[in-house]
Amino acid sequence: MPGQIWSVASPDPSGPLYVTSYGASPSETVVTVVDLAGSVAWQRTFAGTGRPRSRLSTDGVLWVAYPDQAGRVLEGVLPDGSTGRTVAPECGPDDEVGAFVLLDDGFCIAWAGASRLLRGLGTQQTPRPQPRVARYTQEGTCLWSTPIVLGAVSHPGVVGMGVETGWEKRPLRPWVPEEVGVDRWDPLLVSGDRVAAGFTDTRSGIGRTFFLDLDSGEIVSVTSPAPTGRKAIAGPGEFLIGSQGYGAFTTSRYDREGGETARWASHGAMLVNEQGTICGPELENVLPSTSRFRRLAQGNTLVDGPSLTGYYTSCPAMDREGTTVFWRDGKLLAVDADLALHELFAMGDDRNVMGRTLLLADGRVVVSLNSEVLVFHSPLGHLAEGPWPCGDANLRGNPVTDHSARHVEQRTNRSP
C-alpha cells in the first residue's frame, strides 16, 4: 500500500479487500481495493486528516470521512470505485470526525477537535470545539447531538513531584485536560439501543467512556477516569471496557444501564463468542512478556492459556470450532478451544503497526502489517458468530450489533 494501513475490510468471505491507508503523507487518505490474489481493482485518493476513517456497509459501499471546503463529509464509494451518495453533517470549522459507525437508518458520529494537521501548524490556534456524539439520518439530518464533558481527570498511577510535594513522587491532583480526543482503540461502539463512546485527555491517556441511549442521545452512565484500553461489544447493550497503563491492567463488563457487573485482572484484545465466552491474547506492555492467552470466567476469575512472547498483536478472529487466530511476535498463531497453541507461520518481522485479523472463506487469514497486507492459507473453519468481533464487526469493520429499525419514523420526526 502507499502508506501505513488503518483499516482492512471485506464485504464477503470471498473478498475483495477494501484497504484504507495513508497516501504519500498523512495528509492523504487512500482507498485501495484488491482481490485475494493481490491484484488491485482500483485506488482512490482523498484529502486526509492524519486519522483515516472508513466503514464498509452491508451493500458493499465504503463510507469515507474526509475534509472539504464544505466542512467534513462522508462519501459513499461504490463497489466499482465511483462516487455514490455524499453526506455533509453540519459541523464547525474545527470539528473533526473522530469516529463514526453505520446504522441501518443513518450514522452515529463522535466529534472531536480537528488535528493540528487540519488546523495548521504555526498559525494562531482558536479554542477547540467541545466534543460531542451525534446521530444522523441517511440524508445527514441531525436527530440528536449530545455534548461530552470529560471534566477533571486523575488516576492514582499518574504521579508528579515539585516544590509543593517536597520533591517526592505523589499522585497528581485532578486536572482539566487542555485537549480532548476520541480513544485510540474502538472509540465508538453501538450495541442494541446503547452507544459506548470513549473520550480521552490526549496528553495523559486518561479518559472516560460515555454510555448513551441510541434513541434519545441521553447519557445513561459514565465510567470513572482511567487509562484507556481495548473495548468490545459483550452482548445486547453490554460492553467490555479495558484499562491499561499507570499500573492499571483490567477489563470490566458494563450492562445496559452502564453499571459495572464484572472486573478481571487482565487486559487484551478480547473476543466474545456466541455462547458469551470471553477470551483473547493479553497485551501487557512489559518485556520480557508475561502475557498469556486468557479466558475471562465467571466470578472475575481467569483461566490460563499458553504464554505469549512479544507485545504488538493484531485484533484476533475466531472460527466456529472455537480456534482463535492472530499475529504476534512475527508469527501467525492459533489457540484452539482447549487452549492449545499452534504456530501456523513464522518469519523474522518486527513491524509493530497492525490491525484486525480477518478470517475469510477456505481458511484464508488476512493480516495487515504497517503498509502491507498478508494473506495466509490456514486449517481454520468458517468465521464464528458472536457479538465481538466475529460476524459483521470483523469482516466489514463496522462495530454495530443488534440494531433494529424500530421507531425510525418517530426518531426522524424528533427535533435534534
Would you write up a description of this structure?
- This protein has 416 residues and is mainly β.
- Helix content is 3%, strand content 45%.
- The chain has helices at residues 116-119, 392-395, 408-412; strands at residues 5-9, 17-22, 28-34, 40-47, 53-56, 62-68, 71-77, 83-87, 95-103, 106-113, 132-137, 142-147, 159-160, 170-171, 180-182, 188-191, 194-201, 206-213, 219-222, 226-227, 231-235, 238-245, 248-254, 260-264, 271-272, 278-281, 292-297, 301-307, 317-318, 324-328, 331-335, 341-346, 358-359, 365-369, 372-376, 400-401.
- The strands form nine sheets. Strands 15, 16, 17, 18, 19, 20 and 36 form a seven-stranded mixed beta sheet that branches. Strands 1-2-3-4 form a four-stranded antiparallel beta sheet, with no helix packed on it.
- This is PQQ-like domain-containing protein.
- Residues 403-416 have a biased composition (Basic and acidic residues).
- Residues 394-416 are annotated as: Disordered.
- Shape designation: globular
Structural class: mainly beta
Count up the helices. 3
Spans of at least 5 consecutive residues with low confidence: 403-416
> How would you describe the oligomerization state of the chains in this entry?
single chain
Mean pLDDT: 92
